[in-house]
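Hi there, hope your week has been kind to you so far. Thanks so much in advance, here it is.
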Amino acid sequence: MDKLILCLANSYKHGGRCIAGIEVSLQEGQLSINKSSYGIPIWIRPVSNSAAGEVPLSDAIGIKVLSVVKIVNACYAGSGSHSEDYYYAKLQLLDTLNPSDEFLKKYTDTWHNCIFGNKGRALTPDAFQNGDYSLMLIRTEGSEIYLDTRYTPKPRIKFNYNGNEYDFPITDPEYLNRLRLDDSLYRSGYGVLYIVASLGVIHDGWHSKLAATIIIPSVNNIKESIILSKQNQAPINNQPNPRIQNTSYRSVSVPRSTQQMPRQILISQAESRRKENLNTTNHTSKPIQNISQNKATSGGCYIATTIYGSYDCPEVWTLRRFRDLKLAESVFGRAFIKLYYSTSPTLVKWFGKTLFFKKTFKPILDKLVYVLQHEGVESTPYKDIEW
């Protein structure tokens, strides 16, 4: 069954993407929200069958926050708090909106009195497993964005929800980039902001609550309906979701439809659909395992790929552009490139999986990427120059 979502979260995850959105139906270009029996907007998180469930970059090309996305052959795969998960065969971008405050307000969660069952910053593993939702869209006013410098500097947002004060780390990659480029965004007294609250993976024994997306509603050039191209004009009538979202965290299993198939069968079917999709889709990204096959021409960005987990991610795209369009233009730059590619494969082979390697090189690369992007080097998909 195909499903349709308004994408509200699109962050990095294990070299791929973590995409999630609220399920919608489409009729004559107008979107309507699909809700549970409690009136709560239904979230869907498309996942792959990898261990972490990340969406490969090749499947997420062009998808942004506020994109309308068609999930082809959606197949339920949720469990515990991650009840929103669905396997998929293909993700298809239909259009991208630029909505107003009044439009976004309809997508907020007004049922839950607190965020993920408590007023704190995190959940225990038991609470996570016994929960039944991990995503919420929240409307806030008067929030504060600040830099927490107690340990590793980390942007955070303080906000009020239903009379309770919350303080979450910001993980929205687009907003983090804006913060790197403009320190004035660290301030209090914001107007209307929309926050996608999500539950992170376990870390130090806790599932942290995160500000996965920060959305500023538009006041100009508003776009709240979509225009379908000819190949996308088949009607999409989403059927009611088989699961019923509970209203709070409690020690019960997530309700499942009696028609749902065992998880092993879902995994097998998803794998078959993805293999078929790979055979029929012209992917533009380059698999990591094939990087070394073209060392002499495009190079491998071995260290950066090891640090960021993918040859095709925004940080590595920036570094590859810098290599091809700047370094390769000078004699000294080409000499450096030659030295780098003669030594880095061995370095990665010996030390690439060590914590010391990542702690040493990631701060250096993060700073270099920040400087390059600040100077205008793009972080969009990039094809290497043959040099």
In short: The radius of gyration is 22 Å. The longest helix spans residues 331-351. Residues 84 and 275 are 23 Å apart (CA to CA).
